[in-house]
């Protein structure tokens, strides 16, 4: 998988843990259907990673890692229910940047108001790889 070439050492650790719990696929059809960098389906235990789209925009290394951290936060949220659905980890308070607030609104417009809290946590965690790693170890292993 091409995105693995861009992972930081912590990103590599996160990927190793996540890939023990879910199947990771690169550039599946959903990547062309929506304007997304990745997608996690908890009921199917599949993380779709849109490497081609990430590489066509912005800072590839940063975006690959932040996308992995974000989707890994969703894996943590799914581990809490044994992958029946995603539920918030319970992080509070959460302070998001203006870009992240827009991204949450986009996710809510795609998936409904019920995802707001889980997306807020995932966007907050996407810049905190050590916290993601800690939550993975706590809730998934």
What report would you give on this structure?
This protein is mostly helical and 141 residues long. Helix content is 55%, strand content 9%. The protein has seven helices and three strands, in the order αβαββααααα. The protein has a three-stranded mixed beta sheet, with helices on one face. A hairpin with a 4-residue loop joins strand 2 (38-41) and strand 3. Helix 4 crosses helix 6.
Structural features:
single chain, 141 residues, three-stranded mixed sheet, globular
- The coarse silhouette is globular
How big a fraction of the residues is strand?
Answer: 5-15%
Kindly, what is the distance between the CA atoms of the first and last residues, rounded to a whole number of angstroms? Answer: 24 Å
Low-confidence stretches: none
Order of helices and strands: HEHEEHHHHH
Number of helices: 7
What structural class results from the helix and strand content?
mainly alpha
Strand order of the largest sheet: 1-3-2
Secondary structure tally: strands: 3
Mean pLDDT: 97
Residues in helix, %: 55-70%
Main sheet specs: 3 strands, mixed
Cα-atom Rg, whole angstroms? Answer: 14 Å
What does the secondary structure layout of this molecule look like, with pairings?
Elements: H1 9-21, E1 23-26, H2 30-33, E2 38-41, E3 46-49, H3 51-55, H4 60-79, H5 98-111, H6 116-125, H7 129-140
Parallel strand pairs: 1-3
Antiparallel strand pairs: 2-3
Short description:
This protein is mostly helical. 55% of the residues lie in helices and 9% in strands.
């Amino acid at each position: 998988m091409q995105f693995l070439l861009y992972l930081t050492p912590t990103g590599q650790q996160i990927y190793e843990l996540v890939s023990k719990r879910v199947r990771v696929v690169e550039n599946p059809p959903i990547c062309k259907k929506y304007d997304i960098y990745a997608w996690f389906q908890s009921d199917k235990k599949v993380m779709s990673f849109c490497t081609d789209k990430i590489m066509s925009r912005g800072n590839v290394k940063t975006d690959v890692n932040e996308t992995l951290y974000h989707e890994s936060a969703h894996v943590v949220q799914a581990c809490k229910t044994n992958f029946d659905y995603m539920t918030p980890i319970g992080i509070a308070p959460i302070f998001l940047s203006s870009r992240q607030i827009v991204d949450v609104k986009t996710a809510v417009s795609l998936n409904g108001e019920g995802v707001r809290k889980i997306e807020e946590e995932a966007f907050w965690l996407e810049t905190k790889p050590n916290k993601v790693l800690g939550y993975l170890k706590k809730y998934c292993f």
